[in-house]
Amino acid sequence: MTQKHQPDLQKVQQTSVKIQEVCQRADAGISILDDLISQLESQINTSPLYRYRSKKS
Questions:
Q1: Within 13 Å, how many C-alpha atoms sit on residue 43's CB side?
Q2: Cα separation of 29 and 43, whole Å?
Q3: 6/9 Cα distance (integer angstroms)
Q4: Is residue 56 a contact partner of residue 49, using CB atoms and an 8 Å limit?
Q5: What pLDDT is attached to residue 16?
Q6: Which residues 6+ apart lie within 8 Å of 44 measured at CB?
Q7: Which of 11, 7, 9, 30 is nearest to 19 (CA)?
Q8: How confident is the model at residue 4 (pLDDT cuts 50, 70, 90)?
C-alpha cells in the first residue's frame, strides 16, 4: 500500500501566491491587448480605404 502524504502547507501557500502573481500579470497583459485592439479597430474604421470598401460592398 502507498501512504498518502500531507502536503507542506507553507509550500502550498507559496505556490498559491506565485500563481496569483502570474494571473495578475496575465490579466494586466490582456487588458493592454484589449486596449490595443480597440485602438486598431478605431483606426481601421476611420481609414478611407475601409470606408471605400464598406460602401462598395
A1: 6
A2: 21
A3: 8
A4: no
A5: 97
A6: 50
A7: 11
A8: confident
User: Is it the case that residue 1 has pLDDT exceeding 80?
Assistant: no
- Determine the distance from the C-alpha atom of residue 18 to the mean position of all C-alpha atoms in its chain, rounded to a whole number: 17
Give the mean pLDDT of the chain.
92
* DSSP secondary structure letter of residue 46: T
Q: Give the cell for residue 17.
A: 501566491
Specify the pTM: 0.68
- Kindly state the cell numbers that stand for 42: 478605431
What residue has cell string 490579466? 27
C-alpha cell at 30: 490582456
Write b or e for each residue in 17-33: b if 16 or more Cβ atoms lie within 10 A of its Cβ, otherwise e: eeeeeeeeeeeeeeeee
